[in-house]
Amino acid sequence: MKEGHMFKELKKRIEGILSSGSRNMERPQIKKNNESNIPGVYIIGDLAGAPVIKLAMEQGYNVVEHIASLPGAKGSDPHVYDLIVAGAGAAGLNAALTAKEKGLRCMVIEKNKVANTIENFPEGKWVYAEPDERPPKGKLWLDGATKENLIKRWHQIIEENQLDVRMMEPLEKLEQSNGYFDAKTSKSTPWREGMVPLLVSLG
Description:
Strand 7 (about 170-175) and strand 8 form a beta hairpin. The chain has a five-stranded parallel beta sheet, with helices on one face. Strands 7-8-9 form a three-stranded antiparallel beta sheet. The protein has a two-stranded antiparallel sheet with strand order 4-5. The protein is an alpha/beta fold. The chain is built from five helices and ten strands, in the order H-E-H-E-H-E-H-E-E-H-E-E-E-E-E. It has one domain: 3-Layer(bba) Sandwich (FAD/NAD(P)-binding domain). Helices cover about 30% and strands about 20% of the residues.
């Protein structure tokens, strides 16, 4: 397979699902622990069937718990990330917080803004913490709040936990080797490249 072809195909499939109104029920193939049909790529959030914020957060938490339990999950090279999360929504941020708690070196890359989907809600829209009977997992705060208050709180959590979140920085290139990936963005420099698992977080 040509260099970068695998990621282009995955990206094409994801974008096709998101952009086609007639295919809104179609989902990528997901195996145990939310791993996609491409080993080492995990899908969480809306694309993985968790459009509700609390359930997306749960997926982010659970998948990183699984990744952290794998042999060699935490590398010894301080210049190589243990995990890259593509998407700074509820699932992605909770995944990053869980990675931090597990001692994994994690970077979140986001092509727009933090919680971009929620950011685009109408002004003053109330965001609910549903389902009520299901307690949230992980460290990301969630309670009934306006979208403005929720986003403000999440930015505070990012700062307080010193999460490495890169906004306006889409993932551009991904090369596979032995189930892991060398990820590059438009702002990549050599010290930011490394072989890592990848979480694709949408929603």
